[in-house]
């Protein structure tokens, strides 16, 4: 239960951060903006829009970009910062194991990110009611839960990085380097690989390995998992790359597996490393 | 029973040798003063006890438990005041103490502890607004949580005014009377002299002396200073000076007007006084400063010469 004590303390401390307040406000602004876009799209499509699609337009884009940013900003310094200023010696002077500290930090900071997501989505919900008029609350809840999971994954990545170094600067560079990697470099590298193997970039049917690789980033997995929950295959790789026989990794439900791996691997590496270092 | 046992411990950071073959034992119920100039390896030793770092070679045990494998049990029984740390700026003093109480599964009253260290009035202020001394008091309050069997204090008087340092010593004494073993480091001797049962002096990663205060003083001869006030300056003052200087046991003679200060071995004091009076002056008054611990400390740490413990 030691991790819970650490998590509670950490939540209390981190939730008072001004940066978090600013990012949450920005997130709320984006979800409202998304809701407005959704209503505009609904009009443009002349009533052809479904509520679920509205939801997707309204929230997936702001959440897909801002949740990783918020989660990494909230977590990158969680351990490195305490090592840097010495408060980790206060924390570890108390009877907490190093693993409890890492797990407690993940729980605490996920709580903080969760508050931010819930506030943003609550604002977005109000926006949807105001601009679109009707929303499926069940879908909305599903959306929220998958997004909370997505936030947890990025917190695990951020804390994992944070436990590797004594320097918050390095942790920050690592965190945002990773973000750029997932958002841009990943798909570019996979496309380069496709070109190297197949000699072309546009194909009628893409090879399985290509679709598989593209499905393995946390962001693609978020889309897949949302697709699975909302029954909207368009969100997942499966929808984009068609094909009759989808590779395992591109199936919507597999998004949850990928998210799980992205949470557990950094966590395990972080704990292993953190347990062996000199503070 | 042994509270702390460090045996043959070496700690290396890359090429830098922080501790070399350190042996150190602290018995339960003792107040042990860990002395040495800054950079001697005191914090390194404390970090080893708390498993913040691990030894390159050798063994560290606390209450008979290995410092790494038994770290949780050790920290359950230990209160810690680390040196030069920051607290959580956005949490109040009371929240810090409550966190320590929860972490140690203790049933202390946070306000009572804050009262005891003298910052009850700042209990609801965020620690970010605390002065250095207040932060030090707050950390001490968290160290006292759960009546620890061992208190490890790294430079506890840092940031405290003389009054605060005195209160700190008083708390250390109270805790020791309750039965706690106290291990504390300092580069300030005044902190140690008054309350320690035993003292270890660390220099460049090696324990160069370890004894009671009295034992250490005995080990450093020729430290008594005899101050003699005369009614006037002798007519042939140069001859008088050289006569005093030539006495067996005198190592140094200085004059300040009608006062003569003589560094002398204990057995030669009366010879010095007699010799001075033989030069036609009257000794109006004299006093001896016993070798202060400060001199002792300087003798042990500043000299290149090694003094056998």
TrEMBL record, chain A:
Transmembrane segment boundaries: 20-42, 62-81, 106-134, 140-161, 173-197, 220-241, 253-274
Single GO term (MF): ABC-type transporter activity
Keyword Ribonucleoprotein: no
Positions in coiled-coil regions: none
Pfam family, one: ABC2_membrane_2
Keywords annotated in UniProt: Membrane, Transmembrane, Transmembrane helix
GO cellular component: plasma membrane
Superkingdom of this protein's organism: Archaea
Protein name: ABC-type transport system involved in multi-copper enzyme maturation, permease component
From TrEMBL, chain B:
Xref: PROSITE patterns: ABC_TRANSPORTER_1, ABC_TRANSPORTER_2
InterPro entries (alphabetical): AAA+_ATPase (IPR003593), ABC_transporter-like_ATP-bd (IPR003439), ABC_transporter-like_CS (IPR017871), DrrA1/2-like_C (IPR025302), P-loop_NTPase (IPR027417)
Ribonucleoprotein found in the keyword field: no
Ranges for domain ABC transporter: 4-229
Matching CDD domains: ABC_DR_subfamily_A
Coiled coil regions, renumbered to chain: none
Record keywords, A-Z: ATP-binding, Nucleotide-binding, Transport
MF-aspect GO terms: ATP binding; ATP hydrolysis activity
Similarity remark: Belongs to the ABC transporter superfamily.
Protein name per the record: ABC-type multidrug transport system, ATPase component
Provenance organism: Natronococcus occultus SP4
């Amino acid at each position: 239960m030691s991790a819970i004590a650490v998590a509670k303390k950490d939540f209390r401390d981190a939730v008072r951060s001004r940066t978090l307040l600013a990012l949450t406000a920005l997130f709320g602004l984006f979800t409202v903006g998304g809701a407005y876009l959704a209503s505009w799209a609904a009009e443009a499509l002349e009533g052809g829009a479904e509520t679920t699609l509205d939801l997707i337009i309204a929230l997936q884009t702001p959440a897909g970009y801002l949740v990783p940013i918020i989660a990494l900003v909230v977590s990158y310094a969680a351990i490195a910062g305490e090592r840097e200023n010495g408060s980790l010696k206060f924390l570890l002077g108390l009877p907490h194991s190093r693993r409890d500290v890492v797990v407690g930090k993940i729980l605490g900071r996920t709580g903080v990110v969760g508050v931010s997501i819930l506030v943003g989505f609550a604002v977005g919900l109000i926006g949807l009611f105001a601009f679109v008029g009707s929303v499926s609350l069940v879908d909305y809840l599903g959306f929220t839960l998958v997004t909370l999971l997505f936030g947890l994954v990025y917190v695990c990545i951020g804390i994992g990085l944070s436990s590797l170094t004594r320097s918050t600067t390095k942790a920050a560079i690592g965190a945002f380097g990773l973000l750029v990697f997932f958002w841009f470099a990943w798909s570019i590298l996979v496309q380069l690989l496709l070109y190297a193997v197949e000699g072309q970039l546009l194909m009628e049917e893409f090879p399985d390995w290509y679709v598989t690789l593209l499905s393995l980033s946390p962001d693609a997995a978020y889309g897949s998992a949302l697709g699975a929950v909302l029954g909207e295959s368009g969100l997942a790789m499966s929808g984009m790359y068609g094909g009759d026989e989808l590779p395992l990794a591109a199936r919507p439900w597999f998004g949850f597996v990928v998210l799980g791996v992205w949470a557990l691997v950094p966590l395990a590496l972080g704990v292993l490393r953190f347990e062996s270092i000199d503070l | 029973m042994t509270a702390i046992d460090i045996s043959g411990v070496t700690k290396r950071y890359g090429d830098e040798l922080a501790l070399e073959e350190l042996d150190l034992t602290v018995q339960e119920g003792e107040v042990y003063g860990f002395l040495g100039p800054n950079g001697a390896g005191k914090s390194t030793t404390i970090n080893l006890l708390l498993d913040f770092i691990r030894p390159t070679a050798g063994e560290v045990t606390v209450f008979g438990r290995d410092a790494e494998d038994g770290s949780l049990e050790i920290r359950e029984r230990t209160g810690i005041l680390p040196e030069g740390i920051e607290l959580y700026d956005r949490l109040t003093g009371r929240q810090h103490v409550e966190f320590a109480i929860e972490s140690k599964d203790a049933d202390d009253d946070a306000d009572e502890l804050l009262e005891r260290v003298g910052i009850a009035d700042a209990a609801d202020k965020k620690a970010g607004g605390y002065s250095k001394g207040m932060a030090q008091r707050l950390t001490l309050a968290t160290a006292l949580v759960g009546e620890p069997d061992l208190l490890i204090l790294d430079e506890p008087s840092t940031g405290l005014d003389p009054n605060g340092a005195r209160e700190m010593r008083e708390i250390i004494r109270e805790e020791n009377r309750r039965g706690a073993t106290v291990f504390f480091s300092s580069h300030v001797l005044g902190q140690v002299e008054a309350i320690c049962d035993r003292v270890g002096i660390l220099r460049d990663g090696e324990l160069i002396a370890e004894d009671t205060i009295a034992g250490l003083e005995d080990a450093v001869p020729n430290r008594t200073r005899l101050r003699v006030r005369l009614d006037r300056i002798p007519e042939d003052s140069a001859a008088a000076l050289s006569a005093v200087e030539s006495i067996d046991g005198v190592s140094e003679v200085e004059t300040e007007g009608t006062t003569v200060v003589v560094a002398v071995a204990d057995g030669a004091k009366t010879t010095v006084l007699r010799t001075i009076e033989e030069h036609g002056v009257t000794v109006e008054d004299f006093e001896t400063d016993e070798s202060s611990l400060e001199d002792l400390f300087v003798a042990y740490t500043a000299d290149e010469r090694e003094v056998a413990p």
